[in-house]
Amino acid sequence: xxxxxxxxxxxxxxxxxxxxxxxxxxxxxxxxxxxxxxxxxxxxxxxxxxxxxxxxxxxxxxxxxxxxxxxxxxxxxxxxxxxxxxxxxxxxxxxxxxxxxxxxxxxxxxxxxxxxxxxxxxxxxxxxxxxxxxxxxxxxxxxxxxxxxxxxxxxxxxxxxxxxxxxxxxxxxxxxxxxxxxxxxxxxxxxxxxxxxxxxxxxxxxxxxxxxxxxxxxxxxxxxxxxxxxxxxxxxxxxxxxxxxxxxxxxxxxxxxxxxxxxxxxxxxxxxxxxxxxxxxxxxxxxxxxxxxxxxxxxxxxxxxxxxxxxxxxxxxxxxxxxxxxxxxxxxxxxxxxxxxxxxxxxxxxxxxxxxxxxxxxxxxxxxxxxxxxxxxxxxxxxxxxxxxxxxxxxxxxxxxxxxxxxxxxxxxxxxxxxxxxxxxxxxxxxxxxxxxxxxxxxxxxxxxxxxxxxxxxxxxxxxxxxxxxxxxxxxxxxxxxxxxxxxxxxxxxxxxxxxxxxxxxxxxxxxxxxxxxxxxxxxxxxxxxxxxxxxxxxxxxxxxxxxxxxxxxxxxxxxxxxxxxxxxxxxxxxxxxxxxxxxxxxxxxxxxxxxxxxxxxx
Length: 603
Fold this sequence. Notes:
By secondary structure, the chain is of the alpha/beta class. The longest helix is centred in the middle third of the chain and has 27 residues, at 210-236. The protein is elongated and about 90 Å long. A six-stranded mixed sheet has the order 10-11-12-7-13-14, sandwiched between helices. A four-stranded antiparallel sheet has the order 6-5-8-9, with helices on one face. A hairpin with a 2-residue loop joins strand 13 (568-573) and strand 14. The protein has helices at residues 3-17, 23-48, 56-72, 74-79, 89-112, 119-137, 163-185, 188-198, 200-205, 210-236, 246-259, 264-289, 295-310, 315-324, 392-398, 422-427, 445-451, 461-465, 470-486, 502-515, 532-547, 559-565, 583-587, 590-597; strands spanning 147-148, 153-155, 158-160, 238-239, 352-363, 366-377, 381-385, 407-412, 415-416, 430-432, 520-524, 551-555, 568-573, 576-581. Helix 2 packs across helix 8 (188-198), helix 2 (23-48) packs across helix 12 and helix 3 (56-72) packs antiparallel against helix 5. The protein is built from 24 helices and 14 strands.
């Protein structure tokens, strides 16, 4: 049995027994589905995107109050020309809730997501509390008393009067959401979302607009919470502020952490565990302790400690590994027709493609780079060498858009790049690796390399969710596989990047950079950690790329490697150019000899 067959069997079984389950069980399944919908959004936001939020309950409240007010306020019905008892009011309330949530999320996200570290979750607590108290202090929303008389939902001519009927809608929406989000994460856009958590600098250098993606994920999580609130309001037929306070927001995070913060189905598992525990502990604990109180909160705290210690990734990964032992592995086949990606035309050999003119960078009183001049031509390997602390990596950041020069000019293919982001450099045809390896450790080598082709695809979120991007995705993955095999990592293609040796991780970075089909390739210490044979293989690859017309700029300490492959060498010391020329000239330059033999290297 495969994973797909197991899932279909479970869903078929659930649907088959749905009509025979007790009313209480159906009610619990309803709440699990509603909570899981919010938790799935938190998985995308926190587990995948790396943005912790305690305020998702407030967006649930926005969705619930929007439909409740619209369905119970006579002025709202007359505003759209409908009768107060029209069956269309809840659906207009849904649209109102989604639009309101998206607008508020965009406004709050524009401010809150600029924060980093612990300030971000503190910011979400602040606006979560603000919205909670706002619900309770607005008279037209019923104040702390709330709004009653919320009508039942109608789907066409069918009224969803019972929790059994509403449960079918709830779980249909949840399963469709899981399907869509799984498709999204298994796409070009999904790889960009995954890079938000630990690789924002790297992702920007691959062309990913991380600020925009963070806002989009934030709004997506808010929309899912609002959708849950809409269904909750029509399930309860009554709304007041209590279910949307900060404590409930913390419970949603509990569900995500317990289930598995990085796994969509972990949200469902976590919602089920927390909901069932909350229900049964409220009955069991008072009878055991002989008094009533919120003792379940203590148990939740102990549960969190246990999960964080024994299951840091949540319970879902462990459960999945156990079940997968008895399932047939997924067959990696594709029926999509692989079409070629748009190819970038490389400049003619000898053309100057990258220019740095009198580039300086000052950090307070430290002058890291001082009026550096350098130009790189198509079809050459240019090496940048110097002792540790000479300013090489700082200069790399300046000519790739990671940092802005304090003074001076950087141009790429004749275009002035002053004030441009690293995304603009990537779009202009520049790719790079990093001195300290920047990979998505838990993801496969294939996924990491495919991220480098981000700008070569164009499908958006909706197309990815609906699987309308499969042809493009097949082409991107085919290109990633080609570059992996070209770099000699074919056998490691499906392994996680974190499991590779440091030298192999550097090769993964090179393959990722090549997937973007750059005109200019910047390599920051590419052979560090590589054994001799792999150094020779990399030298052959770089020579082949040079012969194809690519411009390559290399920072490296391995002088044997540099002298064997470089056409020209520029030498830095204390942020200044002290020598420039062919390898033979640089090797006998007295300033270079003094810089390397005079103890200038620093750890």
